Amino acid sequence: MTIPTTMNAMILTGHGDLEMYEWRTDWPVPTPASDQVLVRVGACGLNNTDVNTRVGWYSKAISGATDAATDATPDEDDPTWGGAPITFPRIQGADVCGEIVAVGADISPDRIGERIITDNWLRDPDDLLNMNKTGYFGSEMDGGYAEYTVLPARNALSVKSALSDAELATFSCSYSTAEGMLERAKVTAADTVLIPGASGGVGGALVQLAKRRGARVVALASEAKHGDVAALGADIVLPRAPDNIRKALGDEKITVLADVVGGPNWPTLVDVLERGGRLTTSGAIAGPMVDLDLRTLYLRDLTFTGSTIIDLEVTPNLIRYIEAGDIKPALAATYPLEELRDAQAAFIEKKHTGNIVVVP
């Protein structure tokens, strides 16, 4: 195929509100370096990292929920997930499904034509396990909110599936985040997992992947979305913030809390963990500042684990789950790429159950 020299792209020009995105129809198509591939983007999913980075929510100067982050000013030195600045302009968008259309000098041309999804963690090829040398696609390098993108060949994972590009673009971030959390908490069939925010992209992935491990799942979601969450496999679906969570749980014994919500309801959820229980967290969309009684932590022998940079095998395992039909996409809505601002507004307002995807 003939590769154009320019493309449509949504460019982030700095930290701030949605007006910081600039639609361009003349952006240069990138050229792959020796260890990279050029991908024609079929679809790109939205995720919290895109929103959080745009508004600078990761900065410790901001203490509120994601949807209110633009009311505060992030510090210049820690506005991103890694606690360091990024350069602008930047093309965000990590969750790409597309086709390899060109390769760098060190990559076999046999890869041209492969359908791929992304492993978003950019690791040092000489030091793969070093978290301090790890970046994120769409953050430390340009991502998929464009017609074409480049990335290291090792991060472009071949996938064979009858699912559409938009459906496959729901997996890279939400499902790898969820699987990383469950792996950190060592969830097994012996567990009962409590999942707040179960109607969101990561929450829905947690439901499916916990069930895949054989665990029992108790999900929390707004009542209008209970049917959608139940369809993902949750054993019990409760209101988003029950008046009395312990009473609502009845005889259920929660051994794992898998949380990306945080916020004011967080202490009541920690309180229902069984002795020896585990909390695994990878977000705080309702607010990062929470109250913790340290006596709860140590007297009940709880274990808390944060989960951001996932293990090497997580995304390749997801490919196997997808190809085997063990997990299904939770595609909520698709938007044209030029309507990214509207798509992100809907994402922040949680208008849809599941993942939102933009299509060039």
UniProtKB/TrEMBL annotation:
Pfam families: ADH_N, ADH_zinc_N. Keywords: NADP. Residues 16-358 form the Enoyl reductase (ER) domain. It comes from the Bacteria. GO terms for molecular function: oxidoreductase activity. SMART domains: PKS_ER. InterPro entries: ADH-like_C (IPR013149), ADH-like_N (IPR013154), ER (IPR020843), GroES-like_sf (IPR011032), NAD(P)-bd_dom_sf (IPR036291), Zinc-ADH_QOR/CCCR (IPR051603). This is NADPH:quinone reductase-like Zn-dependent oxidoreductase.
